[in-house]
């Protein structure tokens, strides 16, 4: 099984982005890495990073801290059939979803993150799902030819696939976009590759080595 150990986001100002994520979501550098963007990107980047939390109070708390740190609210926190959630866009352009299956809080916010999910919007759902299965990912949950969620194994991030237009609609943005996704997933148990939708993957060891070289420079 390919286990996602961390995510790297490319940002125009990596230091500012690092401060944002620490202040907004309490994310540590072992999970989320930032590096300088070197390729152009416009419009929807085709993915969202979702933080699953225990209760609505936690969603509200993370939305408040994200906005205070400079995020834009794309979808205000609200109840739905599946629970309670909100969508915000970080200053670096990445879109984040805060969600819980609970519809009512039983206490104050704990700011505990139960799960981190990388949700990719794909053009050909069946082909991309098959591509990941062939690379060692195990489907844990699926809804026909629309959504697939893979087992996280021992990794810190879970991978899920969704149709690109449907994902954009869910996030409240236009589906058009081009250039770099400005995201690289780092997984143990897999070689470096680029998927059918242009998302880049590298091994966890390659990421660590690259970080050491960058620090030495």
Report on the structure:
This protein has 5 helices and 15 strands. Strand 5 and strand 6 form a beta hairpin. The chain has helices spanning 14-25, 56-69, 125-134, 164-171, 204-216; strands at 3-11, 32-36, 41-43, 47-52, 72-79, 84-89, 95-100, 115-122, 139-143, 147-150, 158-163, 177-179, 183-188, 193-194, 200-203. Helix 1 packs antiparallel against helix 2 (56-69). By secondary structure, the protein is of the alpha/beta class. The strands form 3 sheets. An 8-stranded mixed sheet has the order 5-6-7-4-8-11-10-9. A 5-stranded mixed sheet has the order 2-1-13-15-14.
What's the helix and strand layout?
Elements: E1 3-11, H1 14-25, E2 32-36, E3 41-43, E4 47-52, H2 56-69, E5 72-79, E6 84-89, E7 95-100, E8 115-122, H3 125-134, E9 139-143, E10 147-150, E11 158-163, H4 164-171, E12 177-179, E13 183-188, E14 193-194, E15 200-203, H5 204-216
Parallel strand pairs: 1-2, 4-7, 8-11, 13-15
Antiparallel strand pairs: 1-13, 3-12, 4-8, 5-6, 6-7, 9-10, 10-11, 14-15
Helix pairs in contact: 1-2
Entry summary:
This is Glyoxalase. This protein is an alpha/beta fold and 217 residues long. The protein has helices at residues 14-25, 56-69, 125-134, 164-171, 204-216, and strands at residues 3-11, 32-36, 41-43, 47-52, 72-79, 84-89, 95-100, 115-122, 139-143, 147-150, 158-163, 177-179, 183-188, 193-194, 200-203.
Structural class: alpha/beta
The geometry reads as: globular
Per DSSP E runs of 2 or more residues, the count of β-strands stands at: 15
Instruction: State the strand order across the main sheet.
Output: 5-6-7-4-8-11-10-9
Calculate the mean pLDDT score and round it.
Answer: 92
């Amino acid at each position: 099984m390919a286990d996602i150990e961390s995510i790297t986001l490319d940002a125009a100002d990596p230091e500012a982005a690092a401060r944002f994520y620490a202040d907004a979501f309490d994310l540590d550098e072992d999970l989320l890495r930032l590096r300088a963007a070197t390729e152009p990107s416009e419009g929807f980047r085709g993915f969202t990073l979702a933080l699953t939390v225990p209760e609505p109070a936690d969603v509200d708390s993370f939305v408040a801290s994200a906005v205070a740190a400079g995020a834009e609210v794309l979808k205000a926190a609200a109840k739905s059939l599946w629970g309670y959630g909100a969508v915000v866009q970080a200053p670096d352009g990445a879109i984040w979803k805060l969600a819980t299956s609970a519809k009512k809080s039983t206490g104050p916010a704990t700011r505990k993150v139960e799960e981190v999910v990388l949700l990719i919007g794909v053009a050909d759902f069946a082909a991309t799902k098959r591509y990941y299965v062939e690379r060692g990912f195990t489907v844990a949950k699926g809804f026909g030819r629309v959504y697939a969620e893979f087992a996280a194994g021992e990794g810190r991030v879970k991978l899920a696939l969704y149709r690109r237009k449907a994902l954009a609609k869910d996030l409240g943005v236009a589906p058009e976009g081009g250039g770099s996704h400005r995201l690289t997933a780092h997984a143990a148990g897999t070689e470096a590759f680029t998927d059918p939708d242009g998302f880049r993957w590298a091994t966890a060891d390659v990421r660590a080595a690259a970080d050491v070289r960058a620090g030495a420079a």
